[in-house]
Amino acid sequence: MNNIYIIPIFIPHLGCPHKCVFCNQDEITGFKSKIDEEYVDNTIKEYLKTIPNESHIEVSFYGGSFTGIPLEKQKKFLSIAQKYIKLGEIDAIRLSTRPDYIDEAILDNLKKYGVSIIELGVQSMDGDVLLKSLRGHTADDVCKASKLIKKYGFTLGLQMMIGLPGDNRQRSLKTANEIISLQPEFVRIYPTLVVKGTYLEKMYKNGVYEPIDLESAVELSKILYIKFKKNGIDVIRIGLQATEDINISKDVVAGPFHPAFGQLVKSSIVKDILDSIFQNNGIKDGLVDIYTNPRSTSTMVGQKKRNKIYLETKYDTEIKIIQMADIPEDSVYVGFNGQLYKDSIENYINKSTI
């Protein structure tokens, strides 16, 4: 679906009695204002003024555990969003919540007010990781909530994190496999960051927690991305969105922060595709043309020309990047000695044995 616009309503900490080790919602969302019905209504009105006609518009309640809010407050917030659905001005309502705050009564109420998309903060399916992260729920809670959400006909999204206390590559892959078995329509992948004001910051400064490094986070996220996409699950975000506060020079104390983390992951996939094309077709010792859609050039070349430098060094080639608007954005075309070799991210993922 093209031209999807999200109207974000941030509800930091409302409804959430837990204090997970990584969480400081005020900094993560960049939002510190009071939330009430007037704020919700005004936010929707202001966003609608800027969104083009014929767009698919969704109001999204982010940042807290929405279904943990007192029921009457849930109803007041949802009724405002539902009003705009009835007016034909928005198309959907979505929200994020905890897996242990889902039951039949809650879902009945969400159905009544027109909610269609529910995201669960899974973070991990490993009991030890959940315990060390002070999540306050179990993997079994995730399974029960996910199945119930799908039974009710909601679109299900699941969020996972890598690099939590006690986590490792094997445990993250286990989490991914269990998420795949739950068949969500989409996922988000977040590397764990050490943010100011969190218990994780204390753990880090006391030497009991070591964050995953950027290179390892990119490599693991790449594998997870491929696994999810190969199994027909859309990956709608990789990495926490940078804000004025969520920045390595501000409130991020440590961890694999990068303002374009998702692009690093996709660029790494493209590097693997190009590496495979070069290796399988004997491309070396000469001039090579790489054709790309202008929108994909930075992903193709890599941050600080990393992909280009890697290939030129490994295969003793000189690479020329040629931009062509008619090439699909996820495609990779390589010209060498009069031959043109083609591949795409989608095809590469489908062939993957990960």
From TrEMBL:
InterPro entries per the UniProt record, alphabetical: ELP3, Elp3/MiaA/NifB-like_rSAM, Radical_SAM_C, rSAM, rSAM_horseshoe, rSAM_sf
Molecular functions (GO terms): 4 iron, 4 sulfur cluster binding; catalytic activity; metal ion binding
GO biological process, alphabetically ordered: tRNA wobble base 5-methoxycarbonylmethyl-2-thiouridinylation
Gene3D superfamilies: tm_1862 like domain
Coiled-coil regions, chain positions: none
Cofactor(s) in the UniProt record: [4Fe-4S] cluster
Keywords of the record: 4Fe-4S, Iron, Iron-sulfur, Metal-binding, S-adenosyl-L-methionine
Pfam families: Radical_SAM, Radical_SAM_C
GO cellular component entries: cytoplasm
Statement: the UniProt record of this protein carries the keyword Hydrolase: no
Name of the protein: Radical SAM protein
UniProt source species: Thermoanaerobacterium thermosaccharolyticum (Clostridium thermosaccharolyticum)
